[in-house]
Protein 1
Amino acid sequence: MVEIISKSWQDTEKLGSIVGEIVEKQKGIVLALTGELASGKTCFVKGLVKKICGSWWVHSPTFTIVNVYGSPPKVIHIDCYRISSYKELISIGVEELIGGESICVIEWADKVKEVLPSEYISIHFEHIEENIRKIYISDPSSILEQSLRDTFFPSETN
């Protein structure tokens, strides 16, 4: 697990961009985002989508549940804040988008664990102070974790 401190929304968005650059070529990857309301999940997704798709209009799909970015779809952004059960996602066919060719980012993923693939990247956002967040990233393959260590803590990886 890698722990990163973000001191602003700009830092959080930049982290999303860095993660986007690392995972861009990995097909079918799922990023499961968790954390309380206003902890930085959507800021992170904005950075990731901007890096991968060049899109500047990124917003949380709280009411639409799903936003699709790129053509063909490069990033699928799912927001489960208003979802009460994984069965709701299944009933609208969203589980078919998970694990396909696109990168799938799921906010509030802890509410729908049942639809997550066996391997996914877990990213947890913890609100520390008004603008400070701790972001914990865990990747079963360790590829993302090692790349982030090399980027943020180069003296520790040598």
Note: The longest helix spans residues 9-23.
Protein 2
Amino acid sequence: MSGPSNCPVAALSAETATPVTDVTWSRADETFTEEFRVDSDVAAENTTALADADPVLEVGDERVYQFSREAGPDATCACEVVESLGHPLADVRVEGGDLVLTLHLPGVERLQEVVSDLEAVADDVEMRYLVHAAADGEGRGDRTVVDRGRLTERQREVLATAYELGYFEYPREANATEVAEALDVGLSTFAEHLAAAQGKLLSETLAV
């Protein structure tokens, strides 16, 4: 998801283009505390993005930071929003200013609830991939995780336009030239983006 704008971890990642990992949090009484690690050199060069966070200690080449705020019924922290719904987060990381959350849910209806609440505090919410699995391991079929995050925005646009125009239908409702014209690109550029996007998707779909 993009933002939230009040998250110093997201702000740091957006300014430095550096992924931030090992994000953890805790709540004591009415205080919500979040902790994360970042490269010491990156931290030294981006003090503005870390203005709301306090340095705790140095661990090798990394610096550990914490920031706290009052917890309340009107949560504006994405992590707090998800956990307030009773869903523990399995992993939290930040890439290019986007907060990436991993969580395990019992059903799609719970996912809709989480997305709805996150949209109230984030600039944009997007599901990168969804994995269905039976709790007992049965009836799983032959499912594969496909990470749409591997595609560039241009590759997504090319795939979406080609799909909408019927390029993948049989017989085709639009040829490569027509799709390229709709995208306002040359035929070779369209073919290049399409091949790259299909290659990424197939490498995950057919991976053993």
Note: The chain has a mean pLDDT of 78.
Protein 3
Amino acid sequence: MTRTRTRSRIYWRDRGGQRRGYGDFRDYADVGGGREALILPGQKVATTDPVVAEKLAVDRLKVLEERRRGRALLGVERQVGLAEFAEYHLVQKARTGQFTEQWLAAVEKHLRTALDYLGAERDLASIRVADIQKYAGYMQQLPNGRGGTLSGGSVRKYLNSLSNLYRRAVAESVVPPGYNPVAALIEKPTAGRREARWLEVHEAALLLESARSHRPERPEMAQPHLYPIVATFLLTGGRESEVLGLEVEDVSFDRKVIAFRPNRWRRLKTSTSHRSVPLWPQLEEILRPYVFGGSSPPGSLLFPSVRGPHESMITDLRKALDAIAVRAGWKAGEIRTKMFRHTYCAARLQTLDRGAPVSDYTVARELGHGGRAMVERVYGHLGQIRHRSEVVEYRVEQYADVLGERLAALRAQADQG
């Protein structure tokens, strides 16, 4: 590289009464070059020293040429900015028809957050693991809309959306093969599982009774079908999206089953998630008047959101769950839908199938798993109250003695309401 070639790239501008050096690297635009201030490390403004400017220009050229050689060697076809590829990525996802509008909107939100922090024009191949680490730290400070900040699980969802974008970029030779700074950060060994929280049968009965008698002071805060929603969670073991995405036609009162199957509202997690579970007598008693009564769902969704002019899935039950949990003696935040899946499994394992204890495999299939391993390792819990029954049910009258003052306090609240 000749000195003349480097000097020809340097030009000067008057800034604050001083001439400051800039470099013209627009012929390296494919690898991020452009008109750039020549700034020493640790400084914030361009240098005024011609010797330093030449040194900085030489160093910058080396970086750009190395980047271009790397692209040619690895078969990377072109430079693409983060915003440009994010838009393309979302369009391609939508065209497949495999994703719901709700899912696409969530991914768009995740990627927009990345654009705001990392830079919309940032070259995909220039983002490093260190950048993603800082981005993850930034997200942990973002408000969650409920007075707190994003949880670790929410941050991981944001990172997964960005990682998925990089997988497409690799497949289309926009970045080098295997280049994914997000996966390099999040795909690490995790600590062993902690004992999951779940409800004893009598606790589930108390929570269900709280949902049945709940009458919020502010009518606009009411979830009109909270009681059948909680009952469906507790009496099917369905995942959150599975239950909230149920359609009316998924409930068969004739065959006494509820079908979890993919539809236009949501996908299922795995192929074994497509399944039918028993419509237990208690759940039928709750759903039948709901489906055929005056508060029946107006569209195809069994539990539609009351927000917005168009039919859509409920996206967040946390405030409603907090309301019924506090009434029944729990603290806000202690009751979440994940617990209901564990609760159903524990209760189901106590039932009889034609007089014999139900098999782990049957329970696993009802949960949507291909084998019994998850039941044995994760979802199976042994309660303090042992019972044997032909059905899964949580009837508060059966546990009035055990619940004692908690049930009395709940009923007193209902009488006052």
Note: The two ends are 84 Å apart (CA to CA).
